[in-house]
Amino acid sequence: MAVSLAACGSAKESGDGDSAKDSSKKSDGSLTIGLLLPENQTARYEKFDKPLIEKRVSELTDGKGKVVYANAKQDASTQNQQADTMVTNKVDALIVDAVDSKAITGSIKKAKEAGIPVIAFDRLAEGDIDGYVSFDNEEVGRVQGQALLDELGPKAKDGDIVMMNGAITDPNAALFKKGAKSVLDGKVTIGKEYDTKEWKPENANANMEGAISALGKDKIVGVYSANDGMAGGIITALKGAGITPLPPVTGQDAELAGVQRIVAGEQFMSVYKPYPTEASIAAEMAVAVAKGESLDAIAKTKVDSATTKGIPSVLVPVVSLTKDNINDTVIKDGIYTVDEICTAKFKAKCDTLGVK
Can you list the alpha helix ranges (DSSP code H) found in 48-136? Predict the structure, then answer.
């Protein structure tokens, strides 16, 4: 209904000529999909999400559809301006991975008033969203927390855990935290906990240095890190403090540097999220709503945001990535080649682990 109402509004506002033109675009596949990604600190957005979505939109439109792309570089006001420009330029649908789930609502409202449907990608933006695709983010946190708990075993009670959560502007960060705490609460002592500004590794590094100073380097038995970028900053701080052996550190996103740290034995685990699946579904949703079609065939689940109930959604399963299943995850799925992972620095470790 939301899609059909938006389409009616667009036709009324644009006049019969534009309406006929839009109908022609939808029927022949010459669609323009706007893609708004939040930042370029995390490798996945530029390396995987953008090219995968572009490829799938092209496939779904027989090469006639195109993606116009903008990256906000972690600035919410920049992203709002980018979204408003795409609305002004009359894209046929928007895929939005919000820097700030609340700050984007004004731009989403403008899009809907212009008859442009919006798909929330990876992060659940607030506002009148037509569809949502992400991973089960509480499950991501549970997977991280359980992996850390299993690795610690009896040592879980021997000292403190440091929790390095993501940015408070990202609704996913709260879900990761909730999932992790559902596993860890009552079973470990959380000595220090941080919400890391902008997910930046340098901020995680500074937070970790503060935790080491406050708790003492001999008291930290494990670190919950919400993603791989922050894990890198955390591990640098642990090494800088002379902590050996390194305590187990979690991560997420299966970034190349994170996978290499797992191979090297510096980072304990990451969460592998099948980006090709998520990106493909985002493209399928965007093309469908751009054509005025229902999402019923794609989205079998409904989720609620703080502002909108019953959003058609797809939540993609995730996998705990450790040194034991690199072959069966990121290599098998073509995310990285063996040569990319096993550079000269890591080749001996790869050989020992049987990465091939």
Answer: 50-60, 76-88, 105-113
